[in-house]
């Protein structure tokens, strides 16, 4: 399926902007492609084990999602995730790197709250 419009690439607009646009782009290609970035149960199997049409289709969707994600990354982010095999792993690592984990986010909020209380 061909896409229309500008392909989302991480740039000066920042990661949150790219993430939203990439999500919309992947959904516009196919809901299955977007779901590949969210599926925690998918694992890449050796090609010899792609024994059913369903397994072949799952792997093709994952490879398309990985390709789209790689295409939208700059060199630093690409180097960070190029060793990963699944779209989910790539999406998760990028999110953790750019947005932090839940624990890190909580600590940042607590730090800002503490600084605000001390300022007043």
Molecular structure report:
It is a single chain. The chain has 120 residues and is mainly alpha-helical. The protein has one domain (15-119). The chain has helices at 15-29, 31-36, 53-71, 75-81, 87-99, 102-119. It is elongated, with a radius of gyration of 18 Å. It starts with 14 loop residues before the first helix and ends with a helix. The model has no long low-confidence stretch (mean pLDDT 86).
What's the total helix number? Answer: 6
Total discrete domains:
1
* N/C terminus separation: 56 Å
Give the helices and strands as they follow along the chain.
HHHHHH
Mean pLDDT: 86
Overall 3D form: elongated
Strand content: under 5%
| Structural class category | mainly alpha
Helix content: 55-70%
In angstroms, what is the radius of gyration? 18 Å
Number of strands: 0
């Amino acid at each position: 399926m061909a896409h229309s419009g500008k392909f989302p690439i991480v740039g000066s607009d920042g990661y949150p902007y790219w993430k939203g646009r990439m999500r919309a782009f992947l959904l516009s290609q196919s809901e299955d492609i977007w779901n590949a970035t969210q599926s925690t149960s998918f694992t890449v199997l050796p090609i010899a084990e792609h024994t059913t049409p369903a397994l072949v289709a799952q792997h093709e969707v994952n490879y398309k999602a990985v390709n789209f994600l790689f295409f939208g990354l700059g060199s630093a982010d690409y180097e960070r995730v190029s060793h990963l095999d699944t779209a989910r792993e790539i999406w998760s690592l990028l999110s953790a790197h750019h947005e932090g984990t839940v624990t890190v986010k909580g600590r940042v909020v607590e730090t800002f709250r503490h600084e605000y209380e001390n300022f007043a």
